[in-house]
């Protein structure tokens, strides 16, 4: 797992795919394959994590990239990797740099509370 550090030279690329509930599992399969065999071969790739929403309406691909190499990669390179996914989902994407990393006050305590579970899949803005 890649550590998040506000002072590193990495960028975070977040892709949120919106999908019908009945297609989420298929979308996950497509993204696992495209990340395994295409995304990982793009210069500058560091790591990726794939997340599926609890409500079944989205899948998020969170990836870390070396800044300079990501800037040289065209958007069409990424879209080519996701062509099959875009047949069944829409895509929202953003590239960000880390500002601050937070860890739990009590490292052994990592419980997802009911209010946080209820927020899953909802937009907060």
TrEMBL record:
Residues 12-67 form the ABM domain. Pfam families: ABM. This is ABM domain-containing protein. It comes from Bowmanella denitrificans.
């Amino acid at each position: 797992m890649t550590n998040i550090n506000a002072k590193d030279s990495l960028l975070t690329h977040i892709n949120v795919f919106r999908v019908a509930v009945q297609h989420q599992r298929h979308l996950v399969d497509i993204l696992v394959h495209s990340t395994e065999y295409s995304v990982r071969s793009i210069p500058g790739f560091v790591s990726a994590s794939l997340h599926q929403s609890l409500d079944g309406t989205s899948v998020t691909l969170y990836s870390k990239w070396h800044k300079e190499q990501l800037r040289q990669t065209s958007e069409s390179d990424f879209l080519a990797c996701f062509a099959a996914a875009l047949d069944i989902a829409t895509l929202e994407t953003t590239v960000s740099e880390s500002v601050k990393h937070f860890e739990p006050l009590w490292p052994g305590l990592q419980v997802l509370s009911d209010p946080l579970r209820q927020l899953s899949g909802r937009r907060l803005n």
